[in-house]
Amino acid sequence: FHFAGHEIRITEATDCYGAVVWPSALVLSYYLETHSKQCNLVDKNVIEIGAGTGLVSIVASLLGASVTATDLPELLGNLQYNILQNTKQKCKHQPCVKELSWGIDLEKNFPRSSCHFDYIMAADVVYHHPFLDELLLTFDHLCKNDTVILWAMKFRLENENRFVDRFQTLFDLEMVSNFPSLNIALYKAMRKGRMR
């Protein structure tokens, strides 16, 4: 992959969902690169949830952000490897990798009082899995009044639409990019009443 003036090499694994680069991650990475003026990431605090192979986290880091890449414990090895390979001595802030199981120990691992993220990024975190309630809880926990959520999503089944409806009870949502041929939409969201 080529983003932010760098060649990015990603190691994938075929044995689990989280170890593959999904098209939504490419869409979000492309958006970050092409909208770097409107969405200036320099010195911004960014968390990626469901980081998978780490592509979005790597691109955000190369664009100057201080990034926390998170995923399930079994994915952290590959995620750490990819991030280190592609960011070492190339970034202003070395990204960190942290375990995050949606909805679990949020206050313990990401205390509201000390964790402030300018951006929450997510690519393809909504698909046919039983943790949509926990995902919504996680967005809610990590999002402050001035946090911007950038979320790329592939629409596959009715579940996705239902999740979007539930998401909109807490957040204002604006589609910033759409790729109908891929069935992917890129959203920007903020807490209700905070969109400018």
In short, what is this structure?
29% of the residues lie in helices and 24% in strands.
Structural write-up:
By secondary structure, the protein is an alpha/beta fold. The protein has one domain: Rossmann fold. It is built from six helices and nine strands, in the order ββαβαβαβαβαβαββ. A seven-stranded mixed β-sheet has the order 5-4-3-6-7-9-8, with helices on one face. A two-stranded antiparallel ribbon has the order 1-2. A hairpin with a 4-residue loop joins strand 8 (171-179) and strand 9 (184-191). Helix 1 runs parallel beside helix 2 (55-62) and helix 2 (55-62) runs parallel beside helix 3. It starts with a strand and ends in a 5-residue tail after the last strand. The model has no long low-confidence stretch (mean pLDDT 93). InterPro entries: Methyltransf_16, SAM-dependent_MTases_sf. One of its GO terms (biological process) is methylation. Pfam families: Methyltransf_16 (PF10294).
